[in-house]
């Protein structure tokens, strides 16, 4: 075959170009996408929209039935040993400026360094001031460790003057380098302190350094209100404030812890524990303090 004949034969050959989209994805002949027509896809999407809308509505309906029939409004669904807390109250403290940090650090000569700390304590005590400003007729009269009437539905007002000298007027001791830390028991529904020593019928708290060096650096501490047991001072969480059963106006009792002579420029690890309770578990609180 001559070159001319070969060239003529090439010109008569036809080429089938490769398709860019496979037919199993898009079939132009049948107008289908992944094997379905537009009508089929529309019906499929509508079905699943209706199906999942029904499931969401069914779930919400069952949840509402559960909440309205199984979860009471005035108390937790699980109380006592069935609750997650198992009658084990923990101890909270203020000031806490950053939730993820337990360090209380300030310079007594720099008001701006301790202003957020004192404001945080103010915010806590303001709630107590609001309750204390309400008419006395809504509350029990609680003086000298006695409650009148002794009715669990009526609660005692907590006297903020029992925290003195840890007061707003004194800036809670921060300008003097004798800072106050406010301790409170977390509310546990129905909990009553199971007292170990009936001579002091209250839950007690004491704080000390976590290590021997911390004990030395911490110096002496004072509690308000306080009592002595075995020659040792403790803060008091008075039993007349328990139990908590969701009463209107209820606020947990407080204890003010004041560091009277902490060693400056040293971070001190502090540990506080509940005492005078028969429970094997005692609430423990840890935080750090540094006075510059």
TrEMBL record:
<dbReference type="InterPro" id="IPR038702">
    <property type="entry name" value="Na/K_ATPase_sub_beta_sf"/>
</dbReference>
<keyword id="KW-0735">Signal-anchor</keyword>
<dbReference type="GO" id="GO:0001671">
    <property type="term" value="F:ATPase activator activity"/>
</dbReference>
<dbReference type="InterPro" id="IPR000402">
    <property type="entry name" value="Na/K_ATPase_sub_beta"/>
</dbReference>
<dbReference type="GO" id="GO:0006883">
    <property type="term" value="P:intracellular sodium ion homeostasis"/>
</dbReference>
<dbReference type="Pfam" id="PF00287">
    <property type="entry name" value="Na_K-ATPase"/>
</dbReference>
<keyword id="KW-1133">Transmembrane helix</keyword>
<keyword id="KW-0472">Membrane</keyword>
<feature type="transmembrane region" description="Helical">
    <location>
        <begin position="40"/>
        <end position="68"/>
    </location>
</feature>
<protein>
    <submittedName>
        <fullName>Nervana 2</fullName>
    </submittedName>
</protein>
<keyword id="KW-0812">Transmembrane</keyword>
<dbReference type="GO" id="GO:1990573">
    <property type="term" value="P:potassium ion import across plasma membrane"/>
</dbReference>
<dbReference type="GO" id="GO:0005890">
    <property type="term" value="C:sodium:potassium-exchanging ATPase complex"/>
</dbReference>
<dbReference type="GO" id="GO:0030007">
    <property type="term" value="P:intracellular potassium ion homeostasis"/>
</dbReference>
<comment type="similarity">
    <text>Belongs to the X(+)/potassium ATPases subunit beta family.</text>
</comment>
<dbReference type="GO" id="GO:0036376">
    <property type="term" value="P:sodium ion export across plasma membrane"/>
</dbReference>
């Amino acid at each position: 075959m001559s070159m001319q004949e070969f060239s003529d034969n090439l010109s008569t050959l036809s080429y089938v170009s490769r398709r860019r989209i496979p037919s199993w994805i898009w079939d132009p002949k049948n107008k289908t996408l992944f094997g379905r027509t537009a009508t089929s896809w529309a019906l499929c999407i509508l079905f699943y929209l209706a199906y999942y809308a029904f499931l969401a509505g069914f779930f919400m309906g069952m949840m509402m039935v559960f909440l309205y029939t199984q979860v009471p409004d005035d108390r937790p669904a699980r109380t006592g040993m069935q609750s997650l807390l198992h009658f084990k109250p923990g101890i909270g403290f203020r000031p806490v400026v950053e939730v993820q940090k337990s360090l209380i650090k300030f310079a007594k000569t720099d008001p701006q360094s301790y202003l957020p700390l004192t404001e945080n304590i103010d915010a806590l005590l303001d709630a107590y001031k609001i309750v204390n400003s309400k008419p006395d007729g809504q509350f029990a009269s609680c003086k000298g460790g006695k409650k009148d009437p002794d009715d669990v539905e009526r609660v005692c007002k907590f006297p903020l003057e029992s925290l003195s000298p840890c007061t707003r007027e004194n800036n809670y001791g921060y300008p003097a380098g004798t800072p106050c830390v406010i301790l409170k028991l977390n509310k546990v529904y129905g909990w009553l302190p199971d007292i170990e020593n009936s001579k002091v019928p209250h839950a007690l708290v004491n704080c000390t350094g976590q290590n021997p060096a911390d004990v030395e650096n911490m110096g002496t501490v004072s509690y308000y209100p306080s009592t002595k047991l075995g020659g040792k001072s403790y803060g008091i969480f008075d039993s007349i404030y328990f139990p908590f059963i969701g009463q209107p106006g209820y606020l947990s009792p407080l204890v003010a812890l004041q560091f009277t002579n902490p060693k400056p420029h040293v971070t001190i690890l502090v540990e506080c524990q509940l005492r005078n309770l028969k429970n094997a578990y005692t609430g423990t609180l840890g935080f750090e303090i540094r006075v510059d």
